[in-house]
Write a structure and sequence with these properties.
This protein is an all-alpha fold. It has one domain. Helices cover 65% and strands 0% of the residues. The chain has seven helices and no strands. Helix 2 runs antiparallel to helix 3 and helix 3 packs parallel to helix 7. The radius of gyration is 20 Å and the shape is globular. The N and C termini lie far apart (47 Å). The N terminus is likely disordered.
């Protein structure tokens, strides 16, 4: 017995029960949305701090932020959208969450493939943004270089219009939020 009068084995039993319940509960679309929202808010807070609205496009501090901080913003934005898309997939197909693990359909960062898996309407415009964000999630947002020369070629082949793209990210976010809300009880 410990000080509170509960045996250690009883605590372990409650923890196991809680853990088992948590897995089931935390895999529902609502929790994907909550995590995505936190990542999205972090991306926007980071962007607002280093790209104040009063800066001109030619401001050297803004250029520095684009070069050195832009990849981190795009990483956070990419993770937010990835998580939101995965939540939509879970809402539309709960079977992708097994009793003990996520399906391989949810354990990668291929944003275009995830978007397709979610059954969302594709456009060249969205695919280009998703590919850019994927490259930041997989490479430039985490490392100073890509993981391989081939990854660098892939990144070089995407349309590049500056490090950050908050307006496009916001438009895609606003398009996806109602999609996930269809599977959860919040408006």
């Amino acid at each position: 017995m410990n000080v509170s009068g509960t045996s250690q084995s009883n605590k372990n039993g409650k923890f196991a029960q809680f853990h088992k319940q948590s897995w089931k509960d935390y895999t529902k679309p609502y929790f994907w949305f909550i995590k995505a929202e936190a990542l999205y808010e972090a991306a926007n807070a980071f962007h607002d701090k280093y790209w104040p609205k009063e800066r001109s496009a030619r401001d050297t501090d803004a250029a520095y932020s684009d070069l050195y901080r832009g990849p981190v913003y795009m990483l956070l934005a990419g993770l937010a959208l990835e998580t939101l898309i995965k939540g939509i997939i879970v809402g539309r197909n709960p079977a992708v969450v097994g009793p003990q693990r996520l399906s391989r359909k949810l354990t990668h960062h291929n944003l275009i493939k995830l978007y397709q898996e979610a059954g969302l309407i594709e456009s060249k415009y969205q695919n280009e943004l998703l590919l850019r964000l994927q490259n930041y999630v997989e490479n430039f947002g985490r490392y100073p270089v890509t993981r391989s020369k081939n990854d660098m070629k892939i990144m070089s082949n995407t349309r590049f219009s500056g490090q950050t793209d908050p307006d496009r990210v916001d438009r895609l976010w606003k398009f996806l939020v109602p999609e996930i809300k269809a599977y959860i009880d919040i408006q």
